[in-house]
Design a protein that fits this description.
four-stranded antiparallel β-sheet; single chain; mainly beta; five-stranded mixed β-sheet; Fumarylacetoacetate hydrolase, domain 2
């Protein structure tokens, strides 16, 4: 999962990127992990932990790897992608991006994943629009034009130090304006050409 992969997210941090603890803007992809305990499917409830008033809904596109990708070139990167999936990178809201947000991002059920659709039927992944709805109201709408690293560049750069195997997923990154949902809300992530991922918050 790519973090800070939206130009608007970096711009919002502004001068803070040049001060402690960051010292300077990131030069390489910033990543979060979504271990197996976070994975869930369409319709599965997203559990809101006790004492947490709401959860950030980071709807994004996931690249489903179809063949081993290691040190791939940008021009060849997407040939390693078998399909695309709608993903919701759920997190407890937090401010600092300096240290891995394990407790905020790696809770059980914090990564609903939709069905994978074949890549050859989707076209350019960087042109896809991602909409996040809460109780039927669109709360966020983004496209790949705001990505710091598009799908091919992100996969190529991350494959320099991570070998991707078939079945792995690489998420492009949540929108800067990721909305907050509360228990009782119904969340839908919609990517035209890919599908809809719907999950209730419980």
């Amino acid at each position: 999962m790519a973090a800070l992969n939206r130009a608007t997210s970096l711009a919002a941090l502004g001068g803070a990127l040049h001060r402690a603890p960051y010292q300077r803007p990131p030069e390489a992809p910033v990543l979060h992990l979504k271990p197996a305990n976070t994975w869930s499917g369409p319709g599965d409830p997203i559990p809101c932990p006790p004492g947490v008033s709401g959860l950030r809904m980071g709807g994004t596109l996931g690249l489903a790897i179809g063949r081993t990708a290691r040190r791939v070139a940008v021009a060849d990167a997407l040939s390693h992608v078998a399909g695309y999936a709608i993903c919701n990178d759920v997190s407890i809201p937090y401010e600092s991006h300096y240290r891995p947000a394990i407790k905020e991002r790696c809770r059980d059920g914090f990564c609903p994943i939709g069905p994978v659709v074949p890549a050859d039927g989707v076209g350019d992944p960087d042109r896809l629009e991602v909409a996040i709805e809460i109780d039927g109201v669109v709360r966020s709408r983004t496209t790949g034009s705001d990505l710091v690293r598009g799908a091919a560049r992100l996969l190529a750069e991350v494959s320099r130090f991570i070998t991707f195997e078939p079945g792995d997923l690489l998420l492009l990154g949540e929108p800067h304006d990721a909305p907050v949902a509360q228990p009782g809300d119904l969340v839908r992530v919609v990517i035209p050409g890919v599908g809809t991922l719907e999950n209730p918050v419980r």
